Amino acid sequence: MKDIEQKSKNKLMLRMTFLIIGLFISGVGVAITKRGMLGVSPVSSVANIISIKFPVLSFGTWLFLWNCILILGQIVILRKDFKLFQLLQIPLSVLFGWFTDIGVWIGDFIPNELYIVRLGLVLLGTAILGFGIAMTVNANLVMNSGEAFVKAIADKWKKVFGNVKIVFDVSCVTLSIILSLIFFDFSVVGTREGTIIAAFLTGMMVKMFQKIVNIKI
To answer: What is the Cα–Cα distance from 86 to 92, expressed in whole angstroms?
Structure first.
C-alpha cells in the first residue's frame, strides 16, 4: 500500500516538474517573440499592448492580470461547474508571468535592429513556446488560463473546442488592435505580422513537439 502511495506521489511530483519546466519554457518563448517587436501570440497580445502603454508594470505582470480575467471568466461561465482545483491556474499564472519577465530580461541582450533578425526571433520564440506548451500538456494537470477559458465556453455551449479557439484568438487580436488605436492615436502598435505567424505556427509546433515529449507519467 505504501509503495503504491509513494509511486503516486512520485508521479505527481514528476508531472508538477514537467508543468513548471513547461511554463518556464513557454514564458521564455513569449518573451523571445516579443523581442522580435513584430507582435506576440494572440492570447498574449492584449497584455502586450497594455504593457507597452503602461510600462509601470512588467509584461509578465500584465500577463498575470490578463490570466486572472480569463480565470474569472471561467467562473462566470461555468458557475457551479467550475472545479476548485482549477484555481491552481492562479499560482501557475504567477509563475508564468515571472518566467516571462525572466525571458524578457534574457532577450534584452539579443540585438534586434535588422528585420530579418526580428523575424527570426518570432520564429524562434514560437518554436520555444510550442515546446513549452507541449510539456505542459503532457503533464496533464492544469490547463493554462487561455485554453481553460476556451474549454469552458466549448463545454458550456456544446461547441467544438477548435472552432472556439479560433474565435477566441481572433477576438484577442481584435481587442489588442482596438486598444492600440485608443492608446496610440489610431496607430496599430504591438500587433503585427508576428502575431499572425505565432497564431498559425504555435499549434503546429505543439503537435510536432508532443511526439518528442510524449512520455507516460
So the answer is: 10
Residue 143 in grid coordinates: 490547463
CA distance 145 to 90: 9
pTM of the model: 0.89
**Element housing 13 (H / E):** helix 2-35
Using one digit for the tens of pLDDT, what is the confidence trace for 76-108?
999 999 999 899 999 999 999 999 999 999 999
> Distance between CA 172 and CA 63 in Å, rounded?
13
CA atoms within 13 A on the CB side of 203: 10
Burial (0-12, 13-18, 19+ Cβ within 10 Å), 191? buried
Distance, in Å, from the CA atom of 111 to the CA atom of 191, rounded to the nearest integer, reads 20
**Domain spans, the chain:** 2-213
pLDDT of 173 strictly over 60 = yes
